[in-house]
Amino acid sequence: MKASRFFIGTLKEAPADAEIVSHKLMVRAGMIRRVAGGIYNYLPVGLRSIRKVEQIVREEMNRAGAIELLMPAVQPAELWQESGRWVKYGPELLRFKDRKQADFVMGPTHEEVVTDIARNQIKSYRQLPVNFYQVQTKFRDEIRPRFGVMRGREFIMKDAYSFDKDVDGLKESYRKMYDAYTRIFTRLGLEFRAVAADNGSIGGSGSHEFHVIADTGEDAIAYCPTSEFAANVEAADALPLVAERAAPTEPMQKVATPGAAKCEAVADMLGIPLERTIKSIVLATDNNADNEGAEPTIWLLLLRGDHDLNEIKVSKQPGLADARFATEAEIVEWFGTPPGYLGPIGTKKPVNVIADSTAANMSDFVVGANDAGYHITGVNWGRDLPEPIVADVRNVKKGDPSPDGKGVLDICRGIEVGHVFQLGTRYSDAMNATFLDETGKPQPMVMGCYGIGITRILGAAIEQNFDDKGIIWPEAIAPFEVVLCPMGYDRSELVREHADRLYGELVAAGIDVILDDRGERPGVMFADWELIGVPHRLVIGERGLKDGKIEYQGRRDAEATLLPAGDAAASVAQKVRAALAR
Amino acid sequence: MKASRFFIGTLKEAPADAEIVSHKLMVRAGMIRRVAGGIYNYLPVGLRSIRKVEQIVREEMNRAGAIELLMPAVQPAELWQESGRWVKYGPELLRFKDRKQADFVMGPTHEEVVTDIARNQIKSYRQLPVNFYQVQTKFRDEIRPRFGVMRGREFIMKDAYSFDKDVDGLKESYRKMYDAYTRIFTRLGLEFRAVAADNGSIGGSGSHEFHVIADTGEDAIAYCPTSEFAANVEAADALPLVAERAAPTEPMQKVATPGAAKCEAVADMLGIPLERTIKSIVLATDNNADNEGAEPTIWLLLLRGDHDLNEIKVSKQPGLADARFATEAEIVEWFGTPPGYLGPIGTKKPVNVIADSTAANMSDFVVGANDAGYHITGVNWGRDLPEPIVADVRNVKKGDPSPDGKGVLDICRGIEVGHVFQLGTRYSDAMNATFLDETGKPQPMVMGCYGIGITRILGAAIEQNFDDKGIIWPEAIAPFEVVLCPMGYDRSELVREHADRLYGELVAAGIDVILDDRGERPGVMFADWELIGVPHRLVIGERGLKDGKIEYQGRRDAEATLLPAGDAAASVAQKVRAALAR
Domain Aminoacyl-transfer RNA synthetases class-II family profile: where (chains A, B) (predicted)? Predict the structure, then answer.
């Protein structure tokens, strides 16, 4: 490609509505332009990267035996009524009427349509398994579209749907997709993790999210660097950090801790580690909804001072599905004191005490005294207060043992770009998608679904790879792999000759190269291509050529290096190939 | 591709709603499935052909210097309000509200969005010309979607938009697109014609439609086989078929022609050629709309007996823009007789007489006598009645001289699959899309737009290429170029060996081949692939192999031929390449 035949729309300034770096850089690099909230034009530079992502996704989906088709963006309401999602799906499902007042939706996803295809096309177990996929424009009417392509309303997805005759088949289809996703994100050149997400519907690891690792990611991920374990922090099991409860060594003692309402302050004041303190969190559950005057049940959750409550885990505890934080009035009524110095000993009215599995194994610990300005030290389970209910109700943290027993957890942040999910028969039951099994009996097809956010990947890749000059693309999805910057293309015959020669050699080598023949000043050229993030740059100048040299600089390199002019194309082609083979 | 890893969804019966052959065959061949009226799933077989069309279109658009981008399907109403089309566009424009009650449309076309891009991105004449294109899903809420992909609601289009600094630039951009379209339809392997369509807005041939020629086409096209001339029958100029009026040779005479109200019957009865008769058509225009009692003006249009009225041409005549057919009451009042024996001589009240340019040069002709059961023969202009107003008001017909003077017209039927259009400044004026010219003065960009109906091409290709067994694809857009049908793939090692070898050889030769390893009976295999329309078939059977032969049959061939087993792959690859190079 020659730049004079291409469209480059770089900007000096990012738009005011761009909050995150990928959004800013995609606009500044001329990849996207806003049309309406969460709706973008993909300008030529952006589309090139999208197509490269799509191509890799297609190759790996095909390799995994999935078959491409294309379903419509506009879907009739009837199918959504059949599945039940016409009612269940919130306002993110864009509903509208056509000119004949028939109800339609703009598809945010295609389970209904593909299940309709399967029930019409698949009659026999002999036709199973099958996995249909598409690369398609979807629409989700986000209440607050933001972050550019990261949370847009109109976006491009690859979605696949597998149909199997039984759960074993589903598990095999699922594994194939899991492996394909692993290959896809590896080939894209992104640092990523597959994160277990228990979907609860089938059991086991029925669902994995694929996250691109980036400091700016929305999700906190707990992972074990020495094993495959990875899970959302909210979903990761927290093992007890104290294996066995030690025998008491201290007497229980009420101590003045004026102004030290937080565990950190208490530990400071008493000169003890934070790990010796226990924090108190008060929840309430309402009883007998019909009787307004009925008293709630009050729950006291005890966690080690350095731990955080995990509300999702709490909600899975018996009796706590609908728990809420207690009001200050309730706390005063049950504990006799406002929040700050609460504890399990000497409450005014009875409370249910739940200790996190780590807190439950502590001894000689410190808790609030239910008396403002006082704590109790040397507290021990059994001796000073009854044994609590024990449960995992905290978030894991860095340094915790990995639940798989194979190391120690670290925490990173991630951006979800893919999701594989064992659906089971949720849609085939609702929509009567059956096949005849080996005995001639109709059985519901067992489904899986597998999504990749094509456009979102661009944003995630940038969040992972940028500096203050702009984007740093992995070679596989860079809009161009190599840029040639001739210094004086229009003035110097020598420069033009070498630039054209290098261009020809790189094209012949199958390299995706752009020759910047726009006649811009070097400063403008360099700034544009660093902003756009082309990973390899060759600068062709008269001065260097007099010594037979061409200047090479990788996008991550601090300094340029000189290459012999004759070898420059082969050398940079080799670098690109090596990167793509990673 | 191996059929066992693919999805083939052929059907014995076409759906009841399929009216035309391409719709029937696309459903039966498993290319499309209806989701709602005018909304289809593209099943794997169909998608393969779509992708091939897209690929050829992209290659030729890129070659012509157009730059690909991607605009959204969902567009904000504001842009359509700016252009004025929010009001002007009928109910085919699907309008809806998002969750915040903001107005949006599903884009049936993208002039507004692309003009918005241009006015934001293009500041200077130095950035012009530029031509942006996309391949994108569009929606048009047809009142009566039908004919499968030929008139769907959701469909795939390639649309391109050129921006130039002046009309000369536009004409060059237009010519490039015209040439690209010519290459595209040639490469697609379709018989087509570029048809002039005067859009009236810029003058000259500001618009061409590209039609695939097919007997079932909606449009009648007049074309000259010995020149480039082609136009919709409605738009083609009709030259006078009689170059100069001959001198009268017959006296005028009233003759009885009982029951012969039509020219054909009169010619029969009188034993003269139809070309000697003149037909009368009576139109009326209403005067003084405010005064209900005002008399209309009555017009008598005279055409040679074998010619048909062209209402579009009539409407362009002075005073006839709002003409309507006269009522029977008006005819009786003005002519003194009901329709059937009308003519220009002896009307009861004065009428304006317009003769078509051919009729105006006739002599010794026959007209109605304004007396039921009677005609007048030997009529001559000037001698027997005043000279008429002369105008081109008829449709051309086969055998007419071509308006370009380079031959004789023929008539065929076509399906419009592409359209190139000189828009001018209609959108850039309305949306203030200006650039600074060489003198620093803002000027409106001069636009062209260029569409190709990607999905429609499939239907048109089938309407042009089918037989009673199914589709006959041109190689360029066939879902597969070659099918291998092994007789007993699962039973005969010899057959399997040769089938696998041929498959490997064809894949290595870059041929898009499918190996039917499904284990179906020969009859089913043959019927499926003939229906699907794969242009080349090799049958691998034990009997032939014993003689070292493989059976080859082209989809249009009446009979199979035998190829030496060792050369079969090379031979069929050669056939495919030859077809693609056409």
Answer: 33-474
